[in-house]
Amino acid sequence: MLDRSIGEFSRFVVIALGCTIFGFASNRWLLALTLGLAVYLIWIFWQQSRFDRWLVNGRRGPAPTNFGVWGDIADDFYRMQRRHRREKQKLHAMLRRVQDSTSALREGIVALEDDGNLAWWNPAAGELLALQPSDAGQPLVNFVRDPGFVHYMHSDGRGPREPLTLSAPGNEARILQLEVTHFGRDEALVIVRDITRLHNLEQMRRDFVANVSHELRTPLTVIAGYLETLEGSGMAPNGWQKPLAQMGEQTERMTTLVNDLLLLSRLETSERDSGGEKIAVGELMERIAREARSFSDGRHEIGVDCERDTLLIGDGTELHSAFANLAMNAVKYSPSGGPIQLRWWVDQRGGHFSVTDSGIGVDPIHIPRLTERFYRVDAGRSRESGGTGLGLAIVKHVLLRHSAEMSVESVPGHGSTFTLHFPPQKLVSETAA
């Protein structure tokens, strides 16, 4: 830029000197200098006007051919225009490749603009959500009217969230999974998957487990009755006392497993929200502590620390099952004489129930899978303790129905702390009640 200014100044000086010399030769140097500079300025303004007209007309075609500083500026604009055109072509090509690649995906992809309005979607999303080209610019909630999805879209949150499962618009038999990711200022990306087959398979599995468990209850009851009769009546042959006792233990274990399977199946198939009972947490914890002490048979020190001025809204039976599962696990996996602490407290984040034991602990690599059905950290020890492998799976589903979460802190060999976190809307003070 400095070189151009120096060049234009040099050109101005040359013109001024030329006009002055010509003026001295003709004895009218002032008139010659004035006319020369006026012509130079008119020439400069004419080039500027040509360049301005080219800008006003949308810079169509190459920049006008000028000389001097305006010629340099026009050349720079022309080079910038060509570079911008090449970059624009690259962006268009990249956008076409992205659209072509997303059009080939089986998952639906929907791009949303401000206020959740439809900006673009691939053919799979159009087919799954029944979208038409004329729907562009309208809110997505106008076409997916499920109340859960409307709340899901309007809830605060950045980044990816847990997927939402619902029926397809206009087709109750098709099950979709939608996942919303926010980005930019007010933009979002919605991923739509057809999980009808997986949903049907899961439903078949649940029905099978429920039906088989229900059918097993009757024969187990009959077997347990006959074993109890044989053991209590003295009709069993000599030497059969130990086999009968073992058969009774295994029958009881099988009955517990069936009952857990039925409870888990009911939790999975029932409505997501829990009941509206008001459960006194202090009374519930005292009852669980009595059951745990009875199960421990004096082998453990079980303490209770509870803020009693609290009522928990939910299903009493389900909450008892969740709390008791954690307490019984602490008894099963803690050595004799080890302390076990049941604690309930309330803070600004909600209510919290924790069970701290002095047992074998859990390696951190196992913690993410603890709530899976039949998952065992130590299969041999779990079977010896009489566990079914379903206790924490039941806890997980009870928490889902109560909008609660579980966290686990554990050090192998030094015990574990399982904590259930309930949101503030699930709590009512006894004074207010």
UniProtKB/TrEMBL annotation:
The chain crosses the membrane at residues 6-24. InterPro entries: BphY/WalK/GraS-like (IPR050351), HATPase_C_sf (IPR036890), HATPase_dom (IPR003594), His_kinase_dom (IPR005467), HisK_dim/P_dom (IPR003661), HisK_dim/P_sf (IPR036097), PAS-like_dom_sf (IPR035965), PhoR_N (IPR021766). CDD domains: HisKA. Keywords: ATP-binding, Cell membrane, Kinase, Membrane, Nucleotide-binding, Phosphoprotein, Transferase, Transmembrane, Transmembrane helix, Transport, Two-component regulatory system. It is found in: Cell membrane. Residues 211-426 form the Histidine kinase domain. The keyword Metal-binding does not apply. GO terms for molecular function: protein histidine kinase activity. It catalyses: ATP + protein L-histidine = ADP + protein N-phospho-L-histidine. It is an enzyme of class 2 (transferase). It comes from the Bacteria. PANTHER family: PHOSPHATE REGULON SENSOR PROTEIN PHOR. NCBIfam families: phoR_proteo. This is histidine kinase. It comes from Microbulbifer halophilus.
